[in-house]
Amino acid sequence: MPEKRTLDAFFAPSAKRPREAEAEPVSTSKHSAYPFDIADFPATLAKELSPPNIPDKPGQTIDDKQDLDLLYFDPFVPKLQARQLFEFLRAELPFYRVQYKIKRGGIETEIKTPRWTTVFGLDETSRFKDGRVVDAESEVLVADGRYTRYPPRPIPQCLETLRRATEAATGCKFNFCLVNYYASGADSISYHSDDERFLGRDPTIASFSLGAQRDFLMKHKTAPESLKLALGSGAMILMRGTTQSRWLHSIPKRTGKNSEDGGRINITFRRAMTKDGTENYYNYNVGRGPMYRWDRIRREMRQRNE
């Protein structure tokens, strides 16, 4: 019989309070496309991660470089809640180590994603209604095969809470949530821009950092401009305007004494306008490989059967 999950499973209890006072049953988000039921935030944490409790500090505009438009919250999530959020999401979400093939110079190359990934959401042409995917305009059940390859997964409550708080603070709308887990300094993401056509012109992307501090590097695509931010736990960067079309960004590897940093989670909220966005995000963040979950005892990701 599965062990009953309580708040004790995620956060260390206080020695000054009775154990009974710490136990807070955790409900779950359910969907047929989930590999397992995903735990909801305990009520106390959900409240702490909702307005007016966040953002913790107002955002600061960074637009002093050519074509750059950022709103930097340092932090958006308070330190204690950022740590709780990191531990919770690492333990409760399904993760994947996606492999895919691309052609470079006419030669097919296999790419192994150097980080753990997962994704939830659905593009603007459709929406979830009672757990089923329907056309956004007609509300008729989608049966044209557009999502046959990867059944979309609705954003679970634990991420939906943060999505709503982000929308309230920024005035932007998001329908996708991508989560990256960098287990150590060896995990990284190379320079890239999120400028795919399915995001529309000048997309806005909210990017959260939880856990270990990592350097966030940016460089202009054509001009000799660059930026480096040391992102601490709870920080959020809102990238908007021409930032994606004119700039690249990356999280480089860390070596030496900083390589085993305890791990970092990156959450990005974005808005896909067409079904190509849904196909792309599930292909590169879930794929066809095995699913992994965090093992609290071994302190590592372990392959699980879906």
- pLDDT < 50 runs, ≥5 residues: 17-21
Largest sheet: 7 strands, antiparallel
Q: What spatial order of strands do you see in the largest sheet? A: 3-4-16-13-18-11-8
* Oligomerization category of the chains in this entry: single chain
- What's the helix-strand series? HEEHEEHEEEEEEHEEEEEEHEEHEE
In which range does the helix fraction lie?
10-25%
State which percent range the strand residues make up. Answer: 25-35%
What sort of overall outline do the alpha carbons produce when their principal axes are compared?
globular
Structural class: alpha+beta
Span between termini: 18 Å
Rounded to the nearest angstrom, the radius of gyration is: 19 Å
Separate helix tally: 6
Total number of beta strands? 20
Mean pLDDT: 91
GO molecular function: broad specificity oxidative DNA demethylase activity; cytosine C-5 DNA demethylase activity; ferrous iron binding
Region (Disordered): 1-29
Organism: Akanthomyces muscarius
Binding site for 2-oxoglutarate: 180, 182, 192, 249, 264, 268, 270
Provide an overview of this structure:
- This protein has helices at 19-22, 43-48, 79-92, 157-170, 243-246, 275-285; strands at 28-29, 38-39, 60-62, 70-73, 95-96, 99-104, 107-112, 116-121, 126-129, 132-135, 176-182, 189-192, 205-211, 214-220, 226-231, 236-239, 247-251, 264-270, 291-295, 300-304.
- The chain has a 7-stranded antiparallel beta sheet with strand order 3-4-16-13-18-11-8, sandwiched between helices. It has a 4-stranded antiparallel beta sheet with strand order 12-17-14-15. It has a 3-stranded antiparallel beta sheet with strand order 5-19-20.
- By secondary structure, it is α+β, with helices and mostly antiparallel strands.
